[in-house]
Structures are given as structure tokens and as C-alpha cells.
Write a structure and sequence with these properties.
The complex is a heterodimer of chains A (564) and B (214). Chain A is mainly beta. Chain A has 6 helices and 37 strands. Chain B has a domain of 116 residues: Sandwich (Immunoglobulin-like). The longest helix of chain B has 25 residues. The chains are: A mainly beta (564), B alpha+beta (214).
Chain lengths: 564, 214
């Protein structure tokens, strides 16, 4: 029976949908009245102007104070950030690492941002497997801070998680980290407090850990280490952040300017026949990239914590926040090879997908032949017996019962009624992956004070930091991660486990056939993913969603690994 | 160093409340009038008893499931397409242009043996039918597996004169749409959550529905 109240709700939902949709059909930018040139004022986030906006949202703001660091400082008084420098550190070496304000120029516009040691990205730390280095971190930003050494199975007390392994490093204070690197591969460091602001504004850098085996990787002509990012900029400047609470907590903060190693485009020149090994790290707050080298062949050889068992030729590389992928690219034809990000974005109002393409870089391939051809090695799909033998020790655990099952979900509290109504109406379908900010205003208006993403332990019903798991060093634990669609605005989550390594055993009942050690895995909406975790490192470790804004809402747990 | 903070004086509450107050007042007035002329019983269009029907709110859409419902030529037949990401080194499988790349396992039951047809062929197509992909021929158990690289699509089973046909030409016996086809349909959720899914073809009791819910 349709009661008057139910009819009212129904009609309201229809009105909310129909008014902007009709405006869109008429080609009118609907409810896009909130402009402004004050860089510190809340304003409509940059968005596709054909996208309709909910009535009543055009003059709203999220609630917390708008925040941008160093806005009272003349940018010209700050040092111009320099492109990252390589820091070769031997066992026992020390690096001074300072987080502070820098002046950056992006697309001929000047911004005040953050940098480690005045660089973008932060210094590239290059060291040897099994080395231990000392990093003396000093915080010269106005926000409390720490540094997390992502993916490294280091001593727990240096993991950089405030409230778990250390106290926050207050502005002007210091903390000394001792980092040992047991695994070869590509890793990265970033703050672990308000990274929705600090990481987004440039506080990140890579760590390249080299194996003592000279044949660990295939022979190539060159290597390039690339950090993928995006930044939200409009006519007034950098789009502000929430001071007391993170904004964009529904989907995470998507940028509209792509950055590769802090530059809008990646450019390089190679010779015909060159093979280049790329180490990609996705450091964006929430964006998943779908990379392709158009006009060149690509082979994937490694990921977060080392190499795959079996190399594979691929057409494209899907990389979620915090993941790393190592690929080799053969440039065998002269001309321009473009590095693109191609996704199918969603228009929720029209219920349609549309192609969204970003050109991230251009590689010019000269007519000159390569000085040393590595084509023969490129054509071979190597079988990494060292990786297989390492994983062999864990195969007997593949079919063990699930130890813990986690469900994802979100609790919605104080959000504008218009948004709540729209979210209720818009529950017919959610795509397994959110490739674009399909609802910029709703997303921007959602803050960590009104939205709580959670990890729920199915067995106990406990959520987030109320979960209390204990393991022993040497345990091999199977986790089942279930991303159910039956919640309000569900979406994918890139889940990161600190201090340990894991295998993705399978997805949705389909067993994986080519393993690589990981520390971050994306769980699409509707999917169930089984992880096998090698609890090799004692301490108190965090597991969390690596969408910065989801983490800010509390989507994290801490588990304890006792010494064996 | 200093940081500036600013909170523009118009919070979200004031304009939203202003709009909501106006809209709600109008809708309540209209709703009260409309309620007087709407049927009060538990029946839907055509007099179907919907009193015991499941509500869609408890039937969250599964993005990896397509239910196949019969056409008039195949009354009583049913089917489902269960999808999973195609094998890939990455956490999610998409094509170069960003379409999700699914492995699709088709299971059917109760299909008739149409006279003159040599094979029952399964196809996937974009909603506008500008692209059609042949998934394969149903085996004796009414099953076939293939791949689908569309984000929003139809699946249908046709009776064809040959198992080798590259283009669909025969009559359609079963058809269904991907879960993404529900976008912008407004059926079965939110304000409509107390209406019967079955009448709209989405509920477990709808023709061809397997009863699976999650």
C-alpha cells in the first residue's frame, strides 16, 4: 500500500532525479552556481559541467574548515621543489629526511605543497637487500606526522603508525627510523596521519631494494621508476582539504590533473629496440589506473614484494592505490608511444558508461637502433624458480579453512538529507570498480565525521579497531575478504597489510595460477578474495583500506603477532 | 609557517533545509490527495497478489549475476550467467579501453528443442546491439562458458540452424541483462523498496529467477 508519507518520499526521490536529469537533457549545466576565486573558500569541486547536481547542494559546503598549508606565505619565499634525487644508501648509512613546504609549478601554475627534502617525489632510496638504513625524520610541516615504510617487513617499532607503533611526530619534532630491507623489490614511504592531505600534497617517495643476484631481473637497456598520482585543482588553485575532518569520504578524493613523478606528463627518448623496465607505484588517494603503452609490447614481471612465479605478456596494467607493478616494455618501432590511462567512467544519472582517456606520457622512439638488443630475453617468459621454491613452502596451506572472514561496509551518519535520499535511490547497481568520481558534489560533501567505512569480523561482529586478532610468528593465516554489495554506496577497497606479505589465493572461487607476494590487494565490489598471510614479523600491525579518505573514517584494524 | 582556515558562512544546512521544506510541503500536500485515489489493497497491476512477495530491499543486486528469463517460445525455461573476472596478473581484469573482462558460465534448464534448430547459441551484446559476441553453443547439459568484455550488456540464447553460425539469426528463447542495466531504472530500491520485485522481473520469484539472493 502506498501511504501518503511513502508517496512523499517516493516523489521526492523522483524530483531529485528528474529535475537535474531533464536539465542535462536540455544541455544545461544544472545547479552549477557555486564558483569563486578565493583559494581558501569552499566551492563547487571541479567536475564535468554536463553532470547534473542535486538541488540544494549548489551553495553547500562539507562543514569542516577549508584547509591548505602555507596559504599566508608568499610562494616565492619558499624554495622551488627539485626533482627527486637518488640516495644510494649502504648498510648502516643515515639519511636526513625533512618534511616541509615547497613551491611547485604544475602546468605553469605555482602552488604551495609539501615535499621531503624539498623534492618531488621524495628522495629515491636505493639500497641492497638485507641492508639496514637509518632515517632521521624531521617534521617541518604544521601537521603532526609520521613516516610509514610501505611493504617493508621491518621492525615493528619503526612502522610509522601513530597510536600503534609510535606517537605522532609534532611540528618541529623528529623521529629516527631504522629500516631493514629483507625483500628485493620496489617499495614506497608516505605519512600515516592525514595522508588525505599530506600524501596528496607530495609527501611520498620510493625505495628500490636490489637483490644481490645480478640476474634477479632480465637484462634491459634502462629502468624508470614512476609514481602515479593525481591532484585536484581548479581556477582558484588547489582545492581545499577539510581541516578537522577529511572530505570526499564516500569515494576518496579524485584529482583532475594526473601526475607522474610529480610532472603532468612522463617524457623520455629511447632507441628503436630498447627494452625499458618500469617500476610503477600508485600513490594517489583513490584513483585506480588502467595503463597501456600504445604501440609497444609489455611484459609484467613483478608486483609489491618481488617477482611473479611466471612472467606474462599483458596489454594493460591495472594498478590500485598503494600497489606496485614491475613491467618491461619493448619499443621496437620508431615513432611515438603514448602511455595512457583508459577507463570506462560512469554517468550515474544517465546510467551509462563512457570512455575516459588521459595521456600520461609520450615515449619517443628514435630511428637509431638500440646499442644492445635485449629482445631475445624480452621474448622469453621467464619462470622464476626462486619465487616458486619460496612459495612451495606455503602450498600445503592453500586449501586450509578460512581463519578469519572480513566484510566491508559503511555506516552513514550526518550527511545532508538530499545526499542520503539520493544514495537510497541510487542503489540499483554499483560497478565492481569506481574508476572516476561519478558524483563529485556528493563525494566532496561527505566527511569523516558523517561516514564510517568498516572492516567487520564476521565471526564476532566486531568492527575496525575493536577487532582483536592474535597470531604467532610463523603462522600462516587464511583471510577471506568479502565486499558485499548490499550496503549503502559500496565500492572497491585496496586493502593493505602492514609488516607481512601475502598471496592472493583466488577471487570469487577461482584459484589464482600465478602467484606473487603482495602487501596490497584490491577487492572489487561483489567479490570475495582469499589471502594467505605469512605472519613472519612480530608486532602490532595495521590492516586497512588504502583509499586515504576511507582510512580517515576508520577503516582499519590492528592485529598482533607474538614472537614465535 | 602558517595555515589558513576558512569556513564560508553558508553551511550546507541552511539552503538544504530551505529547499527541503518547500519541496516536502508540496509533496505532502500532493501525496495526501494522491493517497485518496490509490488502491489500498495488496494487489498490483493485473490484480496479482503481491502481499507475500519478497521486497527488493532484501535482494541486493549481484554485479556478477545475470538471470535469464524465457520468451514466449520457451515457457518454463530458465537460466543464469555467473561471471567472474578473467584470469589476469592484476586484481581486476579489464581490457585496454577499460571494459571489465569477465569469464561467464552459462547454465540453462528447461529449454525446448525447437524444430529445425541445430544448436542453441548464447550471445552477449551491448544494449544497442551494435556489438554482439558469440559465447558458444549450449552443451547437452544446457551449459557453456565464454568471455564478456562489456560493462553493460544483454545475454540471450537463440535457436540457430547451425552450430557454426557467426551471426545471430534465429529466434530468442532466453534473455537477460547485466546488473548494470538496473542503473537509472529506479525499480525495486529506495522509495520503491516495498514494491514487489517480481512484477518488475528482478525478484527471486520472477520468471527465470533462481531464488538466489545476497
Amino acid at each position: 500500500m502506498i501511504t501518503p508519507s511513502r508517496f512523499a518520499v517516493l516523489a521526492f526521490g523522483l524530483a531529485v532525479l528528474a529535475v537535474p536529469a531533464s536539465a542535462q537533457n536540455a544541455g544545461m549545466p544544472m545547479h552549477h552556481d557555486m564558483g569563486g576565486t578565493d583559494p581558501m573558500a569552499w566551492r563547487m569541486p571541479p567536475m564535468d559541467m554536463t553532470m547534473p547536481m542535486l538541488p540544494g547542494l549548489d551553495f553547500t559546503n562539507p562543514g569542516p574548515h577549508a584547509f591548505l598549508p602555507g596559504m599566508d606565505i608568499d610562494p616565492m619565499s619558499l624554495p622551488m621543489a627539485a626533482y627527486r634525487k637518488v640516495m644510494d644508501l649502504a648498510d648502516g648509512d643515515t639519511l636526513e629526511l625533512v618534511a616541509g613546504l615547497v613551491r611547485r609549478t604544475i602546468n605553469d601554475r605555482t602552488f604551495v605543497m609539501y615535499g621531503f627534502n624539498g623534492q618531488y617525489p621524495g628522495p629515491l632510496i636505493r639500497t641492497a637487500q638485507n641492508a639496514t638504513v637509518v632515517v632521521r625524520f624531521r617534521n617541518e610541516t604544521s601537521l603532526p606526522n609520521t613516516v610509514h615504510w610501505h611493504g617493508v617487513r621491518l621492525d615493528n617499532r619503526f612502522d610509522g603508525v601513530p597510536g600503534v607503533t609510535q606517537d605522532l611526530v609534532q611540528p618541529g619534532d623528529s623521529f629516527t627510523y631504522r629500516i631493514r630491507f629483507p625483500d628485493a623489490g620496489i617499495y614506497w614511504y608516505h605519512p600515516h596521519h592525514r595522508e588525505d592531505i599530506t600524501q596528496d600534497l607530495g609527501l611520498y617517495g620510493n625505495m628500490m631494494v636490489n637483490s644481490p643476484d645480478p640476474d634477479y631481473y632480465n637484462p634491459v637497456n634502462d629502468e624508470e621508476i614512476v609514481m602515479l598520482d593525481d591532484l585536484l585543482i581548479d581556477d582558484a588553485g588547489l582545492f581545499p582539504y577539510g581541516r578537522e575532518h577529511a572530505t570526499h569520504t564516500l569515494m576518496g578524493r579524485f584529482g583532475n590533473v594526473m601526475l607522474l613523478n610529480g610532472e603532468p606528463q612522463l617524457r623520455r627518448r629511447v632507441r628503436s629496440g630498447d627494452v625499458v623496465r618500469y617500476f610503477f607505484t600508485n600513490v594517489s588517494n583513490t584513483r585506480v589506473f588502467n595503463l597501456s603503452f600504445e604501440g609497444a609490447r609489455v611484459k609484467v614481471i613483478g608486483s609489491d614484494v618481488g617477482k611473479y612465479e611466471h612472467e606474462a605478456f599483458v596489454d594493460n596494467i591495472v594498478i590500485a592505490p598503494a600497489e606496485r607493478y614491475i613491467v618491461e616494455v619493448l619499443f621496437d618501432q620508431p615513432g611515438a608511444v603514448t602511455l595512457t590511462n583508459r577507463v570506462q567512467a560512469i554517468n550515474h544519472f544517465l546510467g551509462s558508461f563512457y570512455p575516459s582517456v588521459d595521456t600520461l606520457g609520450v615515449i619517443q622512439v628514435s630511428d637509431t637502433a638500440t646499442a644492445e638488443s635485449h629482445r631475445a630475453a624480452f621474448e622469453i617468459l621467464r619462470v622464476n624458480h626462486d619465487v616458486i621454491e619460496d612459495i612451495d613452502r606455503f602450498r600445503s596451506y592453500f586449501d586450509r579453512p578460512v581463519d578469519h572472514e572480513i566484510e566491508f561496509g559503511v555506516d552513514i551518519g550526518a550527511l545532508p538529507l538530499t545526499i542520503l535520499q539520493m544514495m537510497t535511490v541510487d542503489t540499483f547497481y554499483y560497478h565492481p570498480m569506481e574508476w572516476n568520481d561519478a558524483m563529485p558534489m556528493m563525494n566532496y560533501m561527505s566527511t569523516s565525521s558523517g561516514v564510517t567505512w568498516y572492516l567487520k569480523d564476521v565471526a564476532t561482529g566486531r568492527k575496525n579497531t575493536d577487532i582483536d586478532w592474535h597470531f604467532k610468528t610463523g603462522d600462516v593465516v587464511k583471510l577471506r575478504l568479502v565486499n558485499k554489495p548490499g550496503t549503502l554506496h559500496p565500492m572497491h577497497h585496496p586493502i593493505h597489510i602492514h609488516g607481512q606479505r601475502f598471496l592472493v589465493l583466488g577471487r570469487d572461487g577461482v584459484r589464482n595460477t600465478d602467484f606473487v607476494w603482495k602487501d596490497t590487494a584490491v577487492i572489487p565490489l561483489g567479490s570475495t578474495v582469499d589471502l594467505l598471510v605469512d605472519m613472519s614479523n612480530p608486532g602490532d600491525w595495521m590492516m586497512h583500506c588504502h583509499i586515504s579518505e576511507h582510512l580517515e573514517t576508520g577503516m582499519k584494524l590492528v592485529f598482533h603477532v607474538d614472537p614465535g | 609557517m602558517t595555515d589558513r582556515m576558512n569556513n564560508s558562512e553558508t553551511g550546507w544546512q541552511r539552503p538544504v533545509i530551505r529547499v527541503l521544506t518547500t519541496v516536502t510541503a508540496m509533496l505532502v500536500a500532493v501525496g495526501g490527495s494522491a493517497a485518496a485515489v490509490l488502491p489500498a489493497g495488496g494487489t498490483g497491476p493485473g490484480g496479482v497478489d503481491v502481499g507475500a512477495a519478497p521486497v527488493c530491499a532484501s535482494f541486493a543486486p549481484d554485479p556478477f549475476l545475470v538471470r535469464l528469463v524465457p520468451t514466449a517460445r520457451a515457457n518454463g525455461a530458465s537460466g543464469v550467467v555467473r561471471m567472474h573476472f578473467a584470469p589476469s596478473p592484476f586484481g581486476v581484469t579489464v581490457t585496454v579501453d577499460g571494459h571489465h573482462d569477465y569469464g561467464a558460465d552459462v547454465e540453462t534448464a528447461g529449454l525446448p528443442d525447437p524444430a529445425g534448430a541445430a544448436a542453441l547459441v548464447v550471445w552477449a551484446a551491448t544494449p544497442s546491439l551494435d556489438q554482439v559476441t558469440r559465447l558458444g553453443v549450449l552443451d547437452g547439459a544446457g551449459r557453456v562458458s565464454g568471455t564478456i568484455a562489456y560493462n553493460k550488456f544483454l545475454v540471450f540464447v537463440t535457436a540457430e540452424p547451425s552450430a557454426d553460425v557467426a551471426r545471430w539469426s534465429g529466434p530468442i528463447l532466453l534473455r537477460g541483462a547485466s546488473a548494470s542495466a538496473r542503473m537509472h531504472s529506479m525499480v525495486g530500491h529506495g522509495p520503491f523498496s516495498s514494491e514487489s520485485c517480481n512484477e518488475w522481473g528482478f525478484g527471486p520469484g520472477a520468471p527465470g529467477g533462481s531464488g538466489r539472493s545476497r
